[in-house]
Amino acid sequence: MKQQLFTFLGLLLCILGHTQTHTGKLENPLKNMPEMDIVLWPMGMDSAVNIGKLTANGTLEFDFPKKEAFHSTNEDKQIIVNDFKYALRFNCIGQGEPMYPNVMATSISPISLWYKERYVGVLFPVTDEALVHWLEDEAYNSPVKGTFYDVVYVAEATTFQTECATTFQFSEETVNASYHYQLELEAGLNFIAYTIEDIHKMNSKVISNKPSKVVVKNVKAEDGIKWIAKYF
Questions:
Q1: Closest CA to 23 of 33, 34, 38
Q2: Closest Cα partner for 108 from 73, 80, 83?
Q3: For residue 18, which phi and psi values (nearest 5 degrees)?
Q4: Region 78-107: what's the mean pLDDT?
Q5: Which pairing describes strands 173-185 and 210-218: parallel, antiparallel, or unpaired?
Q6: How many CB atoms lie within 10 A of CB 136?
Q7: Beta-carbon neighbour count of residue 65 at 10 Å?
Q8: Cis (ω within 30 of 0) for the bond into 110?
Q9: What b/e sequence results for 9-41 when a residue is b if at least 16 CB atoms lie within 10 Å of its CB, and e otherwise?
């Protein structure tokens, strides 16, 4: 009996250890704000997927569903995925391209607020509010050094730890960029962090500045994340 109890507790701890839960605090809650759902609407699906809730006191409570939530018996209503490299905001496709994991994946955005059967806002997880403006319009707004966060779905658990370098041509200017990946992803949804460590200065009269050194990691803790809401 004692052995069975230890076995049960071990399995329970294993399950809990792999549960994707996160918490945070909204920087700009509304006055008398009601509780809202936090949802994603992946491309290909005909309904939103609930990933948590925003409480009336501004606390964000994420509880990622299992990957089965993104599949349907109707193949026309399943999440659309592509090669792993296309799920990353920054990659070295075609130039010094590393060996990307052979798994299907996709980036899912925005992280939305849902109340009374309609969208009421979107969430921007960043370490500097100035990054919100850049995320809204990268062509005309310049980034700052800091971290922003994204949600990625992967069909299978995978590890990706490598570095790569690439170049981009903007008008008459060349940008040399390097990316460092430190990812250990579970099957299903994952929060990942993009830390902009260096920025290439461009001609501001022509185009915005561009990130030139980025580190991509798992989100290990919520410390430092500022959750900014834009309400509709």
A1: 38
A2: 80
A3: -105, 10
A4: 91
A5: parallel
A6: 12
A7: 15
A8: yes
A9: eeeeeeeeeeebebebebeebeeebeebbbbbb
In this prediction, residue 118 has a pLDDT band, given cuts at 50, 70 and 90, of: very high
Which pair of tokens denotes residue 96? 């010094």
Q: How many residues does the chain have?
A: 232
Q: What CA–CA distance (Å, rounded) separates 12 from 78?
A: 30
Which pLDDT belongs to residue 2? Answer: 41
Q: Is 47 left (phi over 0), alpha (psi -120 to 50) or beta?
A: beta
Domain ranges, ordered by start, for the chain: 18-231
Cα–Cα distance for residue pair 210/43, rounded to 1 Å: 27
Residues 141-199: tens digit of each pLDDT: 999 999 999 999 999 999 999 999 999 988 778 999 999 999 999 999 999 999 999 99
Residue type present at position 23? T
Question: If we measure between CA atoms, which residue out of 23, 39, 69, 73 comes closest to residue 151?
Answer: 39
